[in-house]
Design a protein that fits this description.
heterodimer; A: 455 residues; mainly beta; Porin; 3 helices; 17 strands; B: alpha/beta; Rossmann fold; 2 domains; 4-stranded parallel sheet; 10 helices; 12% strand
Chain lengths: 455, 297
């Protein structure tokens, strides 16, 4: 009983002594280290001074010592090697001169969700905040936030492998699908002040998805890239369906190369398959009364794209030209319910019947930089309402063979690669019996380490 | 279909065992890799002397070549920041990612000039690491060459000895050439010059020239006519003997100024392929010195 207490007392007495001896040893060791480091620092300072006097100001006299004279100092790491993520902010705003049209839509097409109508007069577009960095030796990460009043939407937030090799890249998270050409571009990278009719009709802005993307680049001189995506499929033309598994699949392939030193091109084919369940869209019925429709069924889209660029000797600084065109064909097949709106004088009576539609469209645009800083461009949009069959609802919903078109002409001026001002005029005939002249004045500025733009 | 697949399978490993594919961002590094690598390497050069290396598009053909590369040789110091990161990301080639042996930055092996005291976009296209146009000083090529020979040996150990041997042989010829060039350039010492862009800081430093004016108000910013007139006025008090510009740059600004100041414009090749006779690195400096001496007479 007594022994433990004794032991504790003995330890208590002995320990401070132990500690003192240890501390002394440590102190002397530290002192030694300090003096040796001081000596080393002095030596280094001396060498630095020598190096500074020898080079690089004076050309070294003898060639043998010319190279050896300067010990290459360790260089600063390049931007993407720092620990901090690369951050960039896009400031974008515009003045729009538009007619006062209450229900903007594209005749013959269901309005695609996420469609920000451009307000008349002065307004702010998206303010985008982008961050990206390497996560570790195996992954890199990217995030793009679109800031709007009282709203932040996550446009993209994904990780991507960097170490799989063999041309394989796996991406996971929320990302803009690799289908088509313009789809992966954020609005600040568009060549025109507003979206083309094709993407507006297909996706509102662009097709984004939560899911996985696997991409493979072939080890050939001709650029060959193949990709597959599986995702939630919550966005138009699909809907969120509260289910396991993949709600949408995308397949795409791209070919590309150079022709001589002045020309380069890329061509692609993409396929999107998704399903909708009670997809809610508002269109005007045969009595010109707003009707709510609910579509459930499959939606399949093919997109072909082609881009061609020219720059004399491949030097785009002075002059360059870019041509881009995309074509789509979409098939939708399922059931459509037109919600009863007879109370408001509408033609719908809660009838659900087979809905089948095959629609298509394209845009083609050319942008020419005729002198440094100045570019001009023309874009032509055309959609084909195609064959639409509402079944029994043909009695209450309009079927049209109207072809929405639009001509746009733009001129932009970029004081540097980080700032741009743009003037655009469009003749918009996307709505039947409306021909509207639209004017846009726009600015796009990017702050911070703005990443490279893709081809 | 089956036959096609079999052919594809047979052909893939074949191409993988061929010579080491080197992707050179600029012609000077392509030429250097060829000197050191000889037949053991297959060099693809991403840009030409007629292209502005700051402003290259990440073209599909470049992505395809990055995918095939075993070694990427670039200047670094943010010169390629507008296109190389995209090529690396899109290529799916793990071996050439930054930090791996297959990724080589030349600027890390030379002492840098023109390091900005302030890094702000209001200063124009400034590079935090310093002026990236290091290839206009032949001594820098020797420094980079030594490091590149070492790196080639790491990436392709089977030929490491051959790389070292070729490097040694090149190095001897290169040192002799540097001695010759420095002797030739002796009369140029202290000569005042105007430059279009800060492309020749290393050349000016090597030969002991004096840079008295830059035509660009800020790096990468095109000069306006008003600014050029200012430069012309300044040249009246501190005259330059010539205006230097790189082959890829538009002659407009330099020719306008040269006419005003009544001095010659010298279009220097800037890199391999920038003028007739600059098919290799020796030719690059032979022609550069000939042009400078001709204009100085």
């Amino acid at each position: 009983m007594l022994r433990p207490t004794l032991l504790v007392a003995a330890l208590a007495a002995a320990f401070p002594a132990f500690a003192d001896a240890d501390l002394d040893a440590l102190r002397s060791e530290l002192k030694e280290m300090k003096s040796s480091y001081e000596a080393r620092i002095q030596l280094l300072e001396k060498r630095l001074l020598q190096a500074e006097t020898q080079a690089p100001n004076a050309p070294a006299p003898s060639p043998a010592s010319a190279v050896a004279a300067v010990e290459p100092a360790p260089q600063q790491e390049t931007a993407s090697n720092r620990f901090n993520p690369d951050i960039s902010l896009i400031l974008q705003g515009q003045y729009a001169q538009l007619d006062d049209i209450e229900h903007r839509h594209i005749t013959g097409f269901f309005p695609a969700g996420h469609n920000h109508d451009v307000p008349r007069g002065f307004s702010l577009n998206h303010t985008e905040l982008v961050m990206s960095a390497s996560i570790d030796p195996y992954f890199s990460g990217y995030m793009n936030l679109a800031l709007l009043d009282a709203e932040v939407s996550i446009e993209e937030a994904w990780f991507q492998t960097t170490a799989l090799g063999n041309g394989l890249t796996l991406r996971g998270g929320r990302f803009l699908s690799g289908l088509g050409y313009q789809n992966t571009q954020h609005p600040h990278a568009w060549d025109f002040a507003d979206n083309n009719l094709m993407y507006r009709a297909l996706f509102g802005e662009a097709y984004g998805n939560d899911g996985l993307q696997l991409k493979w680049v072939a080890p050939t001189e001709l650029f060959m890239e193949f990709g597959a995506e599986a995702g939630r499929g919550a966005n138009f033309p699909g809907t969120d369906r509260n289910m396991n598994g993949a709600g949408s699949t995308v397949l795409f392939g791209h070919l590309g190369g150079d022709v001589g030193v002045s020309h380069s091109w890329r061509a692609g084919l993409s396929y999107l398959q998704t399903r909708a369940s009670d997809r809610d869209s508002e269109i005007d019925d045969l009595n010109d009364v707003a009707a709510e429709t609910l579509f459930s069924g499959s939606s399949k889209t093919w997109i072909a794209d082609f881009v061609w660029k020219w720059a004399p000797n491949g030097n785009a600084t002075e002059q360059n030209f870019k041509f881009a065109t995309e074509y789509f064909s979409r098939k939708e097949d399922g059931d459509l319910l037109c919600v009863d709106n007879t109370a408001g004088g509408g033609a719908c009576t809660d009838v659900a019947d087979r809905y089948k539609a095959t629609q298509s469209g394209f845009y083609a645009q050319g942008v020419y930089q005729f002198m440094p800083r100045w570019r001009t461009g023309y874009r032509y949009d055309r959609l084909d309402s195609g064959s639409v069959d509402f079944g029994l609802n043909n009695a209450s919903l309009p079927v049209t063979d109207y072809a929405p078109t639009r001509h746009s002409l733009m001129l932009d001026y970029s004081p540097s690669e980080f700032s741009r001002f743009r003037l655009q005029v469009s003749q918009d005939k996307s709505m039947e019996s409306v021909s509207e002249n639209q004017w846009f004045v726009q600015y796009i500025h990017s702050l911070g380490s703005h990443g490279a733009h893709s081809f | 279909m089956k036959q096609l697949f079999a052919a594809l399978l047979l052909w893939l490993p074949l191409s993988a065992h061929a010579a080491l594919n080197v992707f050179a961002c600029e012609p000077e590094w392509g030429a250097l890799a060829r000197e050191i690598g000889g037949d053991a390497v297959k060099v693809y050069t991403a840009t030409t002397a007629m292209q502005d290396p700051h402003r290259i598009e990440a073209r599909p053909s470049l992505i395809a070549q990055t995918r095939r590369a075993g070694l990427v040789v670039c200047t670094g110091a943010e010169l390629e920041v507008g296109w190389l990161p995209l090529l690396l990301r899109e290529s799916g080639n793990a071996a050439v990612q930054p930090g791996r042996p297959g990724y080589f930055e030349a600027a890390r092996h030379v002492p840098m000039l023109d390091k900005p005291a302030r890094v702000d976009r209001a200063q124009g296209d400034v590079h935090a690491a310093g002026n990236p146009h290091i290839q206009t000083d032949p001594r820098n090529l020797a420094r980079v060459g030594a490091a590149l020979a070492q790196r080639l040996g790491e990436v392709d150990p089977a030929h490491a000895a051959a790389y070292q041997a070729r490097w040694k042989a090149f190095s001897v010829r290169w040192e002799a050439a540097i001695a010759r060039w420095q002797q030739q350039a002796a009369p140029l010492k202290g000569m005042p010059v105007a430059v279009q862009h800060k492309s020749f800081s290393y050349l000016i430093n090597w030969l002991g020239l004096r840079e008295v004016a830059t035509l660009e108000p800020k790096p990468g910013v095109e000069p306006s006519l008003g600014y050029l007139a200012e430069v012309a006025a300044r040249l009246k008090t501190s005259p330059a003997r010539m205006v230097l510009r790189a082959a890829y740059q538009s002659p407009r600004a330099s020719e306008w100024l040269a006419q005003r100041a009544d001095i010659p414009v010298v279009a220097l090749p800037f890199t391999v392929g920038g003028a007739p006779g600059t098919e290799d690195l020796f030719g690059l400096f032979d022609v550069t010195l000939t042009e400078l001496l001709k204009a100085a007479q």
